[in-house]
């Protein structure tokens, strides 16, 4: 369930971030308990607690004493903003570097994007919400793994 | 109720064999600890002393602050089970094994035992001699879980179980831990599979404690650096290398230990080197490699001179 090497608590934190971002867990909604996370992922509860602590520090979750962890109302917007900032450096830049290495000129990339985004918006309907739900955790893991390999 | 363990300068000898050689170890109460080590590293001996089955040749073992050997007040709260557990010595029926366990354990939870039996598909009337190896292992696990001891230790209890049974056992262990918060010690060879349930991991090597750390941190301690030999050599100079470097033509691949994967990856940025996290199982193999597996950047160090970065 977890890729090798990178700390499990970070992977758990990243999954929760994705769920907050996608709206799977709504603002002010309660997050499952460390015990539930531990049972679900078959991990030590302390590891889940560490992920929660990390998200509290980041301002994604807040704690209600004796009740549990909740999503901060401003968390989705903050996460989206953070991902947007990273998008160009972490997603686009590697693509450009690869293109440069194999001699694809920027114009060709721009042309590809223009064509693909045309197709993408046309294909948006049939892909629907079911796909997005199913694809979300996997897609996230891919990102983590790619970074993990330092590529 | 939960118990911690303090092991100080523990030495155990069997004839001319030294199983434990001045081992020190502290297990915090209310956690799930993993005890790892190769065959013959001293795991079973250490657990047996912690359970009060053996008297230390030298050194001390305190459980909940008290010596454990021949101390019924403590041993009553300690349970160690393993493949070698003498279950079925007096009887051949599952329910008789459970009655024996019940007589020995004040905290025995018969309903919980019954529930676990059902989960593993074992019937009280089953004959031990006819149980599969996996079910027998599961029964041993059940004796540990249902016993309710404040310090419960499983010595390679997963050994005979197939993958689904191991998963069921892990689930039962985590549910029990969430409910009781007692101290568990689990010794295992299945490093990768088991390590996520451990809060702390202790690695024994040739009778000594090699490293003890929280499992998630240990997972970050090692990384593999691969690239052109010259670049790898200058990048890893002065760093602690474990295992034998591997070469393929002009490509060199080495395993670093002691820093952090993220740190090394950051430093390697722009060098063209590939830095990968190291699976815990692989790190474990390198750390416990027999004979001179460990070398530092300046030359090889004798295996006995190995220390761990704490």
Percentage of residues in helical conformation of chain B: 25-40%
Provide the succession of SSEs of chain B. EEEHEEHEHHHEHEHEEHEHEEHEHEE
Oligomeric state of the chains?
heterodimer
For the record, the CATH architecture of the largest domain in chain B stands as 3-Layer(aba) Sandwich
Category from helices, strands and their pairing of chain B: alpha+beta
* Portion in strands of chain A: 5-15%
Q: So what's the CATH class of chain A?
A: Mainly Alpha
Low-confidence stretches of chain A: 125-151
Report helical residue fraction of chain A.
over 70%
Most extensive interface, chain pair and sizes: A-B, 22 and 31 residues
Main pleated-sheet profile of chain A? 2 strands, antiparallel
Largest sheet of chain B: 6 strands, mixed
What is the spatial order of strands in the main beta sheet of chain A? 1-2
What is the helix/strand order of chain A?
A: HHHEEHH
Q: Mean of residue pLDDT of chain A?
A: 81
CATH superfamily of the largest domain in chain B: P-loop containing nucleotide triphosphate hydrolases
Query: Mind telling me the C-alpha Rg of chain B?
Result: 22 Å
Termini separation of chain B comes to 29 Å
Could you say how many structural domains of chain B there are in total? 2
List low-pLDDT spans of chain B. Answer: 292-310
Observed structural traits:
heterodimer, A: 151 residues, mainly alpha, Arc Repressor Mutant, subunit A, 5 helices, 71% helix, elongated, disordered C terminus, B: alpha+beta, Rossmann fold, Alpha-Beta Plaits, 2 domains, six-stranded antiparallel beta sheet, 11 helices
Structure report:
Chain A has one domain: Winged helix-like DNA-binding domain superfamily/Winged helix DNA-binding domain (Arc Repressor Mutant, subunit A). Chain A is 71% helix and 5% strand. Chain A has five helices and two strands; from the N terminus they run H-H-H-E-E-H-H. Chain B has 310 residues and is α+β, with helices and mostly antiparallel strands. Chain B is 33% helix and 30% strand. Chain B has eleven helices and 16 strands. A six-stranded mixed β-sheet of chain B has the order 6-7-8-3-9-10, sandwiched between helices. In chain B, helix 4 runs antiparallel to helix 5 and helix 5 runs parallel beside helix 6. At the A-B interface, helix 2 and helix 3 of A face helix 6, helix 8, helix 10 and strand 14 of B.
């Amino acid at each position: 369930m977890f890729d090798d090497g990178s700390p499990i608590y970070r992977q758990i934190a990243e999954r929760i971030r994705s769920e907050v971002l996608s709206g799977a867990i709504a603002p002010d909604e309660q997050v499952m308990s460390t015990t539930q996370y531990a049972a679900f992922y078959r991990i030590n509860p302390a590891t889940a607690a560490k992920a929660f602590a990390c998200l509290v520090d980041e301002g994604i979750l807040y704690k209600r004493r004796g009740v549990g962890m909740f999503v901060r109302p401003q968390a989705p917007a903050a996460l989206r903003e953070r991902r947007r900032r990273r998008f160009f450096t972490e997603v686009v830049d590697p693509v450009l570097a690869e293109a440069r290495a194999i001699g694809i000129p920027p114009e060709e990339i721009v042309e590809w994007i223009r064509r693909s985004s045309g197709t993408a918006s046309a294909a948006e309907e049939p892909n629907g919400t079911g796909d997005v739900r199913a694809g979300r955790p996997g897609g996230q893991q891919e990102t983590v793994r790619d970074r993990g390999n330092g590529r | 109720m939960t118990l911690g363990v303090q092991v100080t300068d523990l030495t155990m000898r069997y004839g001319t064999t030294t199983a434990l050689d001045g081992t020190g170890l502290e297990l915090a109460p209310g956690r799930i600890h993993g005890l790892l080590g190769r065959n013959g590293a001293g795991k079973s001996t250490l657990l047996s002393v912690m359970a009060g089955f053996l008297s230390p040749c030298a050194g001390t073992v305190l459980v909940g602050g008290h010596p454990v050997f021949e101390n019924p007040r403590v041993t009553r709260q300690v349970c160690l089970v393993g493949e070698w557990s003498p279950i079925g010595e007096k009887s051949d029926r599952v329910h008789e094994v459970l009655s024996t366990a019940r007589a020995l354990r004040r905290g025995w939870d018969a309903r919980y035992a019954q529930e676990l039996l059902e989960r593993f598909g074992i019937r009280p009337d089953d004959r031990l001699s006819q149980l599969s190896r996996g079910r027998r292992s599961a029964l041993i696990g059940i004796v540990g879980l249902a016993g309710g001891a404040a310090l419960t230790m499983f010595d390679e209890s997963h050994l005979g179980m197939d993958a689904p049974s191991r998963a069921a056992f892990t689930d039962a262990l985590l549910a029990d831990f969430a409910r009781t918060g007692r101290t568990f010690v689990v010794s295992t060879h299945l490093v990768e599979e088991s390590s996520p349930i451990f809060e702390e991991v202790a690695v024994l090597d040739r009778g000594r404690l090699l490293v003890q750390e929280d499992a998630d941190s240990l997972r970050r301690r090692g990384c593999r650096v691969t690239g052109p030999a010259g670049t790898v050599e200058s990048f890893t100079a002065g760093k602690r290398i474990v295992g034998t470097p591997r070469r393929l033509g002009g490509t060199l691949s080495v395993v670093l230990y002691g820093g952090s994967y993220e740190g090394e990856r950051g430093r390697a940025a722009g060098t063209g080197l590939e830095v990968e996290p190291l699976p815990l199982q692989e790190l474990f193999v390198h750390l416990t490699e027999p004979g001179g597996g460990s070398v530092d950047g300046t030359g090889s160090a004798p295996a006995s001179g190995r220390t761990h970065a704490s």
